[in-house]
Write a structure and sequence with these properties.
This is phosphoribosylglycinamide formyltransferase 1. About 35% of the residues lie in helices and about 25% in strands. By secondary structure, it is of the alpha/beta class. It is globular.
Length: about 230
């Protein structure tokens, strides 16, 4: 098993970076960060630069090219965890080279509504729940094991944009909890690449496992979400 308290984080992205902008307001997230990487000029990199974090742009026309560039840059660096907000499919040899250490936060309750339009596909369905899933990245499209999920009721009397904002907040809380586990050394990745987390709780809550109550209460998160 690997002591994840030794890890540093590489954030991957390609868009505006709304979740990242919330995450980097926390000092411990900035301290955990090794680098913020994108395949094009975008808000994701601008947010990191404005926060004084190391950045890199690795130009690529598709997910495979980006994966190859990442593999060349980080080959042999086993002390890294990758948290991806990148919108294209990551491929080998990156996946095998960092097996079990790449994670994504997808805007649906997996295994339902995989792919690029997780929230829109959820909203267009008859589902009564929406949410997000923080999961390990494998060679499939949003098929890796989940480590944290949120399920929120869909109140169709509300504007779609308001519902999407609720999922955005769930993604932010999920990513923040994941990074807190990492800081605390509670995330364990075994020799096969399987990830698990120590000392979890499973009370009735939108989040499974539960968010850390003391930390999130200090952040002003409503009690009904913790």
């Amino acid at each position: 098993m690997t002591d994840t308290a030794m890890y540093r984080v590489v954030f991957l992205g390609s868009t505006g970076g709304a979740v990242l902008s919330r995450l980097v307001s926390h000092e411990f997230v900035r301290e955990l960060t090794h680098e913020v990487v994108a395949d094009r000029p975008c808000g994701f990199l601008q947010i990191a630069e404005q926060s004084g974090m190391a950045t890199a742009m690795l130009p690529a026309n598709n997910g495979h090219e980006f994966s190859m560039a990442l593999h060349r840059r980080y080959d042999g660096m086993s002390n890294l965890i990758f948290l991806s907000f990148y919108t294209r499919l990551l491929t080998n040899p990156l996946l095998d080279g960092h097996k079990g250490r790449l994670f994504n936060c997808h805007p649906s309750v997996l295994p339902s509504f995989k792919g690029m339009h997780g929230f829109d596909d959820t909203y267009a369905s008859s589902s009564l729940f929406m949410g997000c899933s923080l999961h390990q990245i494998d060679a499939g499209i949003d098929t890796g094991p989940c480590v944290l999920q949120a399920a929120l009721p869909i109140d169709r009397r509300l504007p779609k944009a308001q519902l999407r904002h609720g999922v955005f907040l769930a993604q932010y809380y999920s990513a923040l909890q994941f990074l807190l586990w990492l800081k605390q050394g509670r995330l364990v990745i075994d020799a096969t690449g399987h990830a698990s987390v120590r000392d979890l709780q499973f009370r009735t809550s939108p989040f499974s496992p539960n968010l850390d109550a003391d930390f999130f209460a200090q952040c002003g998160i409503p009690n009904e979400l913790i």
